[in-house]
Structures are given as C-alpha cells and as structure tokens.
Amino acid sequence: MSTRRSHRLLLIPPTGALTDEARGLLPEHVSHADATFNASRSALLVAALTGHGEALLAATDDRLHQPHRAEAMHESAALVAKVGAAGLPAVISGAGPSVLVLARGAAEADASTAQAPDGWRVEQVAVAPIGAHLVR
Predict the structure, then answer these.
(1) pTM for this structure?
(2) Which of 43, 76, 78, 127 has the greatest number of CB atoms lying within 10 Å of its CB?
C-alpha cells in the first residue's frame, strides 16, 4: 500500500472529549496477552503501510485503548465497528472521539464517508514527515 494511493479520513463528531478524561478510562494494568496482541498489531501496521495493504484491517485491531473508551464515546466506537464490519480499516483517533479511516483507495474513502453519522464532519488528512495534519 503506497501512501500516495491511500486515503486517510477523519470522521469528526460535533462534540469532543477531553484527552485527560479519555486517558483516565484506561486501566492501570493490562494483561500480557493484550499487550502482546497490541505490540503485534503495531508491527503489522508498519508492514501494512509499507506494501501489504491487505493486512491493514487486521493491523487496526486494538485491545488496550478502544475497548476501555467505548462506553464514554459509544457513537465513535459503534462507527469503528460498523466501518470495520464493512472491511474498512478504522480506529479511534488519538484519545478520541474522532475516527481515523485508513481507506485503501477512493472507493473505500467514499464508503467510509457514507458511514459517517448525521452531523459528523469528514476531513481528508495528509501524512507528512512531521506528522499528520488537516488538509482543507
């Protein structure tokens, strides 16, 4: 998967969340199995972003952050599940509640945009050597 052919979209809800509150929802300790799972997904994400786009959906699975924050941002969690069920890679962006979709082409980008709930904004984001930023 080349970053030139991929489409990164932020699906942004009308209301935000405080980072400190979102971090406070995380457990103090995690199981070895969950930590190992997430570490493996980090490695898989690198592979998916550098040539193995077919692994992108699996690489966006998470056991450390999203499950613990789901109750506080249920609409975002439901959107990640809905988009994922359609085969589109998506995660809660940062501490949330925005959803980042890593579409593997224009068709997936369009399908992701169609999944956005009423009132949500959709923005395409670019990835630069200095990090992600909003493209208007």
Answers:
(1) 0.79
(2) 76
